[in-house]
């Protein structure tokens, strides 16, 4: 049995439905691709070395793991860098006699208190000073983040540091993200925005 031909009105209606279905089909395909593209662009921007460079932070030319170490804190407890895997580590090298080190400590404390429950840790490595001197400093400046004692300067040497203060930013998998020399206002908007990004927090 032959089908009756469609009228002009039926053809017009059918064509319209096909266009709608085509557009809907395209959206089902295009929407996920577009979202993936936006996400990739966002992540690429977040992890781009240029963002570190804008904040005068150096980045490694090739992926590199942060040298692991185990040091004592002033109370005799062992601090192992590997124990902080899964967190973003703000690794700072300092000394009590270093005036720029003293200047940036309050900002570091501010950062630690704000982000310590969100996967962020400040680990301050004191270089070649006695536990008593460091303990006195910690009490004076009301420092609550972990302090490690590099009594022989071995860890400082492993990280290639020749001036204080020096700070390494280490990723959740132990990779070196960036490094900065000198005192900074680490709690200002630009740096806080960077840390929020590294932690995957809304800004």
Explain this structure:
Helices cover 44% and strands 18% of the residues. By secondary structure, the chain is α/β, with parallel strands linked by helices. It has a 5-stranded mixed β-sheet. The longest helix has 40 residues, at 8-47. Residues 1-15 and 20-47 have low confidence and may be disordered.
In brief, what are we looking at here?
Helices cover about 45% and strands about 20% of the residues.
| Quaternary state of the chains | single chain
Helix content: 40-55%
Gross morphology:
globular
The largest sheet, given as strand count, sense and whether it forms a barrel, is: 5 strands, mixed
Strand order of the largest sheet: 5-4-3-6-7
Strand content: 15-25%
Question: Roughly how many Å apart are the termini?
Answer: 67 Å
Low-confidence stretches: 1-15, 20-47
Q: Quick one: how many beta strands?
A: 7
Continuous helix count:
6
What's the gyration radius in Å? Answer: 27 Å
The average pLDDT is 83
Q: Name the helix and strand elements from N-terminus to C-terminus, one letter apiece.
A: HHEEEHEHEHEEH
- The structural class is alpha/beta
SSE map:
Blueprint: H1 8-47, H2 49-54, E1 70-72, E2 78-80, E3 88-94, H3 99-115, E4 120-127, H4 131-141, E5 147-150, H5 154-158, E6 166-170, E7 176-181, H6 189-199
Parallel strand pairs: 3-4, 4-5
Antiparallel strand pairs: 1-2, 3-6, 6-7
């Amino acid at each position: 049995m032959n089908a009756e031909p469609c009228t002009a009105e039926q053809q017009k209606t059918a064509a319209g439905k096909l266009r709608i279905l085509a557009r809907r089909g395209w959206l089902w395909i295009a929407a996920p691709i577009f979202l993936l593209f936006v996400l990739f662009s966002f992540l690429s921007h977040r992890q781009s070395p240029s963002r570190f460079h804008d904040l005068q932070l150096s980045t490694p030319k090739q992926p590199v793991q942060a040298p692991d170490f185990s040091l004592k804190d002033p109370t005799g407890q062992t601090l192992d860098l590997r124990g902080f895997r899964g967190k973003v580590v703000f690794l700072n090298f300092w000394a009590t006699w270093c005036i720029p080190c003293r200047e940036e400590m309050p900002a570091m404390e501010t950062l630690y208190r704000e982000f310590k429950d969100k996967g962020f840790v400040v680990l301050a490595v004191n270089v070649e000073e006695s536990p008593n001197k460091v303990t006195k400093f910690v009490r004076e400046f009301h420092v609550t983040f972990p302090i490690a004692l590099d009594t022989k300067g071995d860890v400082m040497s492993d990280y290639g540091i020749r001036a204080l203060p020096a700070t390494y930013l280490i990723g959740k998998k132990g990779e070196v993200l960036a490094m900065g020399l000198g005192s900074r206002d680490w709690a200002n908007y630009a740096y806080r925005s960077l840390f929020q990004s590294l932690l995957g927090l809304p800004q």
